[in-house]
Amino acid sequence: MSVMERLPSSLAALNDKELEVLRLLAAGHTVKSIAASLGRSEASINERLRDARRKTGVGSSRELARLIDAQKNWDKNIDLAAPGLATHDQTRPPHAGRIRSKGTLVMAFTLPIAAALGLALAGTSTAPQPASQGTAQAAAAQQSPLAGRWSLDVMRIPENERPQRVTIEFKVSPDQRWTTHVEIVSADGSTMHADSTAAPDGVPVAGTGNMPFIDSVSLRHPSPDTLVMTLGKNGAPVSTRVYTVAKDRKTMTETIIWASTGVPKLETTYFSRIG
Predict the structure, then answer these.
(1) What top-level class would CATH report for the domain 83-273?
(2) Helix/strand/coil for 43
(3) Are 189 and 210 in contact, with CB atoms under 8 Å apart?
(4) Phi/psi at 17 (nearest 5 deg)?
(5) Within 13 A of 36's CA, how many CA atoms are on the CB side?
(6) Which residues, including other chains, have CB under 8 Å from residue 128's CB and lie 6 or more apart?
(7) Deepest in the core among 106, 161, 167, 213, taking most CB within 10 A?
(8) Measured between alpha carbons, how far is 223 from 198 in angstroms, rounded to an integer?
(9) Does residue 193 contact residue 207 with C-beta atoms inside 8 Å?
(10) Tens digits of per-residue pLDDT, 185-207?
(11) 3-class DSSP assignment, residue 135
(12) Terminus-to-terminus CA distance in the chain, angstroms?
């Protein structure tokens, strides 16, 4: 059993102090700033992080913090259920002959970004931010190593579920909007595509494309190398996806958290930079 499969059931083993430190770490704090904020020693903070890694089996404190943050965003649905939208059963969408496996999981994730285009362009209201904070966020977005073109490592997908090709492209504009283009070539040669533009403010937007599994998306950008995306259909959340770029900026992981009535199962897919 992989670390990702063990993680959900082990989250309950974390105590409030460990969760507090991990959430601060996910928000961009360092061990030093966490210690100062909580009035504790750096050694004490490191001890809590070590205990959290031991309990969950995750080798990196920052990776564990990102997963905790992703679960928190999922629990809040990242504001996906907007007022007036119907509430639906939050279950994993049915498989269409299992083409909705990791290959189509990627499809499902990308479409919503595509979904972002319509509403984002129509304009959404967000809480005003101090000029310095907005400037810092804009700079972080423009410097994000997520920007560029990525190709799914299809060889990690079972042969009977494997698409020919999946590519994703992220672009970040000066006004902090993320434009995403996705193209999926299925095993039979048929093509799906999606395009969208959305601000990383957690506000769901609708988009365009020929992927029928999702019709809305909302984004968060907690750090330069991480993008959190929640996808929905008919006003109900379908999944939350966390994209994280490696330090070498050549590879990217996608952690998929499916909607469920209990602790969601996590899946991971892998991308390589192609542009």
Answers:
(1) mainly beta
(2) helix
(3) no
(4) -70, -40
(5) 5
(6) none
(7) 106
(8) 17
(9) no
(10) 999 999 988 888 899 998 888 87
(11) helix
(12) 34
Supply the pLDDT for residue 73.
60
Give the rounded distance of the alpha carbon of 254 from its chain centre. Answer: 7
Report DSSP state, residue 250.
S
Q: Yes or no: say if 257 and 266 are a contact pair by the CB < 8 Å rule.
A: yes
Tell me which residue of 85, 107, 110 sits closest to 95, measured CA to CA: 107
Residues 6+ apart with CB under 8 A from 202: 78, 79, 218, 219, 220
**How large a percentage of the chain has pLDDT more than 90?**
24
Backbone angles phi, psi at 18, to 5 degrees: -65, -40
What is the structure's pLDDT at 61?
87
pLDDT at 131 over 70: no
Q: Is the pLDDT of residue 210 over 50?
A: yes
| Best CA proximity match to 109, nearest among 267, 239, 270 | 239
- List the chain domain ranges: 3-74, 83-273
Hey, what CATH class is 3-74 in?
mainly alpha
Distance CA 275, CA 263 (A): 36
> pTM score > 0.70 for this model?
no
Percentage of the chain lying above the pLDDT 70 cut: 67
